[in-house]
Amino acid sequence: MEPITIVRSKVAPLDRADVDTDQIIPKQFLKRVERTGFGEFLFFDWKNEDFYILDRPEYEGARILVAGRNFGCGSSREHAPWAIQDYGFDVVIAPSFADIFRTNCTKIGMLPVVLPDEDVRTIIQEAIDQPGTEMTVDLEECAVAFPDGRTVEFHIEDSVRDRLLNGWDDIGLTMLKEAEIGAYEAGRERQGPVTTVLL
Amino acid sequence: MGKTLFRKVWDLHEVVPEGPEGPAILYIDLHLVHEVTSPQAFDGLRMAGRAVRRPDRTLATVDHNVPTVGRERGIEDELSRLQVEALERNAREFGIPLFSLTSPRQGIVHVIGPELGFTQPGMTIVCGDSHTSTHGAFGALAFGIGTSEVEHVLATQTLPQGMPRTMRINFEGDLPRGVVAKDLILGAIGQMGVSGAQGHVVEYAGSAIRGLTMEGRMTVCNMSIEGGARAGMVAPDDTTFAYVEGRMAAPDDFAASVERWRELPSDPDATFDREMDVDVPSLAPQVTWGTTPGMVAPITGRVPTPEQYEDPTDQEAVRRSLEYMGLQGGEAMEDIAIDTVFLGSCTNGRIEDLRAAAEVVQGHSVKDGIRAMVVPGSMAVKAQAEEEGLDEVFRTAGFEWRDAGCSMCLGMNPDILEPGERCASTSNRNFEGRQGKGGRTHLVSPAMAAAAAITGHLVDVRTFDAALAGA
Ligand code: SF4
């Protein structure tokens, strides 16, 4: 995956709480067997709604998405972060994320940033009132710089940060532990059901 | 200090403990695979020249996308067909057992795992599907993963995992008449909110949980994700062991396995990061009125109005939900007329669910103008129901009787709601558009869904007979 270090860009606001993955990418688009091309269907069912403004020209090129609490709840579909990334976002800021969604983001090189409620409110308001205002998200420093110069720090696990900063492939990292996995398997080989009896 | 059930299962599966280098790496005992979240993972393996490490710990089925009528004709929808064919190809290439469209064992992934005996206490189980938490009913650590993680497990049979927090939800007291597992979990989600258990693995405990059958426990664990939980678990006990015994994949050394499984329940002095109590005797059958599973009320109650909420974010969310649902706020739940009934899904598509619904339906018919369908969770459930004559009860009453799959739970196959249609559904999500664009979903238990089909509106299953007589 592509490394992420510092993202400076416009911010696109989605002023909704509990945005679920069924909204992010409706199921009719889950039938593709490819990993790309989901961006054009992002928030497909919301395209004509008044509150849905992030496709306005003022937000074109935004790489930072900001939304309400519990973002990405519901289905585990990784198609949701794929669609957000494919649309052009590298960072999603929210007061909280659903667990699976958050993990999925970090696996594909997209940065989920959790900020306090009030800060998220401020960013959303700013992005709506002054479309095109830029912000900086700095993963090296774990800090978000607001347009007024104020900075707020955010937390992310060190190992996840390292992986995102370097664009490391998780599977490759785990495969370095082959000896441990092999030893573990040898110790428990006879436990648990075996599916291949069905073949 | 004592250990929780969760921690015991976790510790048994640590290949590499958490350290400065990163999170723990957990071994995965069983990986369930379906057609929608796997094609890109298999592609990834091929591109990197990697094999599936343990095909013998991997099991695939088709469920999300498949038609529930006219299977012999194949799949008409081209994209759905391609997805099923891709899984067939991948299973063959990588040596993974697969129940495809016409297999008598085909079914929803979370129904077939337990029913064949693959789901056992103390295991780690993952699947590219958020309702994998269902398997936690056996005292397994089971959770949903994304496609990158599916690829990770295929390649390494392990997953790096950060340590979740723990929470116990205590359901003490006797279940009131008409209140079932679905109402327990909907009530709990209503109490804690849809992100109430975020970051936690939940253990469901208390006398009401102990008294549930395995299928009831599966219903409870199934909806853990609707409360935001990473996973849900129930301590294994004699009910669990009796369920597993004799199933196809049950261990050969069954007695010895039970001895090991008896060690799993949380120690009496184990502590949890959080605890919550649900007052079971005060519960009534639950129905959702909004567009998240936390927007739920007793059937005896009324739809709330935005003004009843303090937080402005909540007010706005409620306002929007009511608008989407076509409700004013303030109406009695029982006055809400429906036009569709869906009985099925991994939450409530098992044989006991069908029995409970059939018992209500017996001797009645579906109200004119209502479309009602039963979609068994697996072909084995379907066969069992037919053996018991339940299909006759449903058909005679005017229900459609379908083949197994996810069907209208998410409407990826042709079974969908039209815009504005209102459905009493035994599934688990009432999100906007979940069952079809513009469709309106009210989540209920199987018996409540059956009663709604007969009366044509949401109705209290405890009194619907009287309501019918008075009508
Ligand atoms: S029945 Fe519904 S919730 Fe269950 S696996 Fe299928 S789509 Fe998901």
Structure description:
The complex is a heterodimer of chains A (199) and B (471). Chain A has 199 residues and is α/β, with parallel strands linked by helices. Chain A contains seven helices and seven strands. Chain A has helices at 21-24, 79-87, 99-107, 117-129, 158-166, 170-175, 178-188; strands spanning 6-14, 64-67, 91-94, 111-114, 134-138, 143-145, 151-153. A seven-stranded mixed sheet of chain A has the order 4-3-2-1-5-6-7. Chain A is globular. The mean pLDDT of chain A is 94. By secondary structure, chain B is of the alpha/beta class. Helices cover 33% and strands 17% of the residues of chain B. Chain B contains 17 helices and 19 strands. Chain B has helices spanning 5-12, 39-48, 78-94, 109-115, 147-156, 181-192, 207-210, 214-222, 238-244, 254-261, 312-325, 345-348, 351-361, 379-387, 390-397, 446-455, 464-470, and strands at 14-16, 24-27, 30-33, 58-61, 98-99, 124-127, 141-144, 158-161, 165-172, 200-205, 231-233, 274-279, 286-288, 296-298, 340-344, 371-375, 400-401, 422-425, 440-443. A five-stranded parallel sheet of chain B has the order 5-4-3-6-7. Chain B has a five-stranded parallel sheet with strand order 17-16-15-18-19. In chain B, α13 (351-361) packs across α15 (390-397). Chain B is globular and about 65 Å long. Chain B starts with a helix and ends with a helix. Classes of the chains: A alpha/beta (199), B alpha/beta (471). The structure holds iron/sulfur cluster. The site of iron/sulfur cluster has 13 residues of chain B, from α12.
Write the layout of secondary structure elements.
The complex is a heterodimer of chains A (199) and B (471).
Chain A: E1 6-14, H1 21-24, E2 64-67, H2 79-87, E3 91-94, H3 99-107, E4 111-114, H4 117-129, E5 134-138, E6 143-145, E7 151-153, H5 158-166, H6 170-175, H7 178-188
Parallel strand pairs in A: 1-2, 2-3, 3-4
Antiparallel strand pairs in A: 1-5, 5-6, 6-7
Chain B: H1 5-12, E1 14-16, E2 24-27, E3 30-33, H2 39-48, E4 58-61, H3 78-94, E5 98-99, H4 109-115, E6 124-127, E7 141-144, H5 147-156, E8 158-161, E9 165-172, H6 181-192, E10 200-205, H7 207-210, H8 214-222, E11 231-233, H9 238-244, H10 254-261, E12 274-279, E13 286-288, E14 296-298, H11 312-325, E15 340-344, H12 345-348, H13 351-361, E16 371-375, H14 379-387, H15 390-397, E17 400-401, E18 422-425, E19 440-443, H16 446-455, H17 464-470
Parallel strand pairs in B: 3-4, 3-6, 4-5, 6-7, 9-10, 9-12, 10-11, 15-16, 15-18, 16-17, 18-19
Antiparallel strand pairs in B: 1-2, 2-8, 13-14
Helix pairs in contact in B: 2-5, 6-8, 13-15, 13-16
